[in-house]
Amino acid sequence: DSPCSPPLSVVDARCEAAADYWKKEHTFRLWLSDEAEYLFSAPSSKLMDEWIQKIRNNA
């Protein structure tokens, strides 16, 4: 068994495309209410937009 990280709460989180991030395509930022920031990279622009919208719908 490998240790797992606790789940991230997206309550009051902000999420948007990371237009200024050039290392990977289709990257977006997630800022949590505790001010932690995460970068995620999706396989396509379409999926990135879908993921952002789903996170926003649950924030």
From TrEMBL:
SUPFAM superfamilies: PH domain-like (SSF50729). Signal peptide: none annotated. InterPro entries: PH-like_dom_sf (IPR011993), PH_9 (IPR041681), PH_dom-spectrin-type (IPR001605), PH_domain (IPR001849). One of its GO terms (molecular function) is phospholipid binding. Transmembrane segments: none annotated. Residues 1-59 form the PH domain. Coiled coil: none annotated. The lineage of its organism: Eukaryota, Metazoa, Chordata, Craniata, Vertebrata. This is PH domain-containing protein. It comes from the Eukaryota.
